[in-house]
UniProtKB/TrEMBL annotation:
Boundaries of every HTH asnC-type domain copy: 11-72
Entry superkingdom: Bacteria
Keyword Transcription regulation: yes
GO biological process terms on file: response to amino acid
Name assigned to this protein: Lrp/AsnC family transcriptional regulator
SMART domains named among the record's database cross-references: HTH_ASNC (SM00344)
Gene Ontology molecular function: sequence-specific DNA binding
Organism encoding this protein: Jannaschia seohaensis
């Protein structure tokens, strides 16, 4: 949550309970969530609606198991570039947004400029991704790290 949003949205203990329950399983009925947080349906619904309108929560989505889809390889891609002008950044961002393999992308402080989390079927599929990316934007150095085992993965934020 940005500093701006945090100053506009005041969350009390009930809001936080609702957020924890929604992060745990948003597919449950309003009645179940209300029971878990110790309230009734109408106040819980109103709080959920207000938090959605304020941008605290986005739409509910399904969390899909990548292994079940054959996307068994997770690569963390470290990118260094010598180009930092706006035109290059726009092309790079467009390339990332166009690639569904990129689950996350972060601009970093330090020696590495960007880190990507890329989900693909295998090393060959990663190479196809890599070749496409470097054909679209020029980068100075790319290092790919294959995750051997996912030890923890959470979507829930500490609220």
């Amino acid at each position: 949550m940005s500093d701006d949003l945090q100053t506009r949205v005041q969350l009390d203990a009930l809001d936080r309970k609702i957020l924890r329950e929604m992060q745990r399983d948003a597919s449950r009925s309003l009645e179940e969530i209300a029971r878990e947080v110790g309230s009734s349906k109408t106040p819980v619904w109103n709080r959920i609606r207000k938090m959605r309108e304020a941008g605290v929560m986005g739409p509910p989505v399904a969390v899909v198991d990548p292994d079940a889809l054959g996307l068994e390889a997770c690569f963390f891609v470290l990118i260094r570039t010598s180009e930092h002008e706006a035109e290059w950044q726009a092309r790079f961002l467009a390339a990332l947004r166009a690639r569904p393999e990129v689950q996350e992308a972060h601009r970093l402080a330090g020696d590495i400029d960007y880190i990507l989390k890329v989900r693909v079927a295998n090393a060959r599929a990663y190479d196809v991704f890599y070749q496409a990316l470097i054909s679209e934007v020029r980068v100075f150095n790319v290092t790919a790290l294959l995750s051997m085992e996912e030890l923890k993965s959470e979507t829930a934020l500490p609220v």
